[in-house]
Amino acid sequence: MFSAKIWRESPQRYRLEAAKCLGCGKVFFPPRLVCLGCRGREFEKRFLPWRGRVLTFTVIHTAPTPFVDMAPYCIAIVEVEEGVRLTCQLVDVDLEAVEIGMEVELEFRRIQSNQSDGVLCYGYKAVPGGGE
Amino acid sequence: MRDVAVIGVGMIKWGERWESSLRDLFVEAALAALDDCGLDRVDALYVGSMSPGLFTGQEHIGALFADYLGLAHLPATRVESACASGGLAFRQAFLEVSSGLSEIVLAAGVEKMTDVDGAEATYVLSTAADQEYESFHGITFPGLYALIARDYMHRYGLTREQLAAVAIKNHAHGSHNPFAQFPRKIDLETVLNSPMVADPLRLMDCSPITDGAAAVVLCPLERARELGKKKPVKVLGSGQASDTMALHHREDFCYFRSTAEAAKRAFEMAKIERERVDFLEVHDCFTIAEICVLESLGFFERGKAGSAAQEGITALDGKLPVNPSGGLKSKGHPVGATGVAQIVELVHQLRGEAGERQVKGAKVGLAQNMGGTGASSVVHILEGC
Ligand SMILES: [Zn+2]
């Protein structure tokens, strides 16, 4: 049952699929069925850029069950384009060197192994870079 | 809509209550509330609980609790809105009495959190965030509030010491609350040397994991003196609102729009200005939350509440006492019970029976209860009669 739950999200997690409202142009990640801006219901598929900028971040020391072995790890809110934001881990980085405004690239990585059945879940994580 | 009063309140000792089950906690608080007003039955009950299923394996707690309270045939309803479940249970009870549907309604909140270990409790709490786009990536609640704290510090120059001052102040208040989980004062060193949970938030910035329950009895204001034993407390205003589930979808991470909207609705119903409010019980699940909530409620300008605790403005003897009960930080945070316990504290204060933590001359109090990172908020304004 859990594999359907994971598979269903894969367009967003594997390819950063978002939805652009045909009414007002607002971009939603993940895609929605109704636009928050104009309440329109027509969207076109688009792909978010695999780079962005750190808006805020934390380093998790006390982790929830599936992530206990990874702690400490950094999590950031990343703005990938004007107004489009997501939350993800920031890895391959000196935890002391993370700062607000830092440029990052997104990469396809393993996120966690599912608690109930051990299925490996993949998605996007940020790494430093992309600023040059 | 008719006027509604709180005529009975019940609070129990909060903490690691290994000897007490989920149902025991509820019944103990419910009986305390019934004894407080001298009644032995009610017409309906609402109970707020965030996740009895994940914490203890038990769902369907409305019926279970009515059964164990010895009132098996009541309409009994569980409501859930994460950490705002208690405030929402109170609001539903208020609406049921106000509408004229029922005369006497019990509103309770309960959470039994210590039947699972710390990592599991952290996981259960994280289910109140967006499961697929926040929790999936390993964020925790302390982590989400740490994202807010970092942003606030960056924008407004909030210091580590100012954050700590919130915890120190609430523990000082809670040291006078016999029901509190940690009724003792703490100092700056204790906060700054406590283990890092989610940078910049340390253990002493966080509310604890708690077993607890609280309950109140409501009835029409015009029958309050006939039905109750003590001074009634009138519900002046009630407001509820929502916001985006994921923190990253907010334009402003430091402003809880749901709290602002809920407060606006509660003040409109109460027909009073903020100046009339003598004290507040707010949702300080983390030190940074109290700061952002005070600004979202409109009691401080943006960026100005950061120094309030350090300057003594929000202390018991300050201009605007905040969390005289000790708040979630010192009193404990059995998530579903918190919103109801805030109402209990308002009533104790407005009856003038809060002992050493009494806010002098308290006539109007406000309670703000929040779920997730503010995806839901419930605000109530109460007045002593
Ligand atoms: Zn639109």
Describe this structure in words.
The complex is a heterodimer of chains A (132) and B (385). Chain A is mainly beta. Chain A has helices spanning 2-8, 10-15, and strands at residues 17-21, 27-28, 43-47, 51-60, 73-81, 84-90, 103-113, 120-128. A five-stranded antiparallel β-sheet of chain A has the order 6-5-4-7-8. A three-stranded antiparallel β-sheet of chain A has the order 2-1-3. Chain A is globular. Chain B has 385 residues and is α/β, with parallel strands linked by helices. Chain B folds into two domains: 4-117 and 210-233, Peroxisomal Thiolase, Chain A, domain 1 (3-Layer(aba) Sandwich), CATH 3.40.47.10; 141-207 and 234-384, Peroxisomal Thiolase, Chain A, domain 1 (3-Layer(aba) Sandwich), CATH 3.40.47. Chain B has helices at 22-37, 52-56, 61-68, 85-98, 118-126, 141-156, 160-174, 188-192, 224-227, 257-270, 287-296, 327-331, 338-351, and strands spanning 4-11, 44-48, 76-79, 105-111, 196-199, 201-202, 212-220, 233-242, 279-281, 364-371, 376-384. In chain B, helix 1 (22-37) crosses helix 3, helix 4 packs across helix 13 (338-351) and helix 7 (160-174) crosses helix 11 (287-296). The two termini of chain B are 19 Å apart. At the A-B interface, strand 4, strand 5 and strand 6 of A face helix 5, helix 6 and strand 5 of B. Zinc ion (ZN) binds next to loops of chain A. The site of zinc ion has 8 residues of chain A, from loops.
The oligomeric state of the chains shown is heterodimer
The CATH architecture assignment of the largest domain in chain B turns out to be: 3-Layer(aba) Sandwich
Global mean pLDDT of chain A: 93
Amount of helix of chain A = under 10%
Please outline the major beta sheet of chain A. Answer: 5 strands, antiparallel
Question: Between the first and last Cα atoms of chain A, what is the distance in angstroms?
Answer: 44 Å
CATH class of the domain at 4-9 and 49-128 in chain A: Mainly Beta
What integer value in Å does the Rg of chain A equal? 16 Å
Alpha-carbon distance between the two ends of chain B: 19 Å
Query: DSSP helix count of chain A?
Result: 2
Helix-strand pattern of chain A, N to C? HHEEEEEEEE
Beta content of chain A comes to 35-45%
CATH homologous superfamily heading of the largest domain in chain B: Thiolase/Chalcone synthase
CATH class of the largest domain in chain B: Alpha Beta
Which stretches of chain A of 5+ consecutive residues score pLDDT under 50? Answer: none
Biggest sheet architecture of chain B: 9 strands, mixed
Which overall shape of chain A is indicated by the principal axes computed on the Cα atoms? Answer: globular
Q: What structural class do the secondary elements of chain A suggest? A: mainly beta
Say how many strands of chain B there are.
Answer: 11
* Widest sheet, order of strands of chain B: 3-2-4-7-1-8-11-10-9
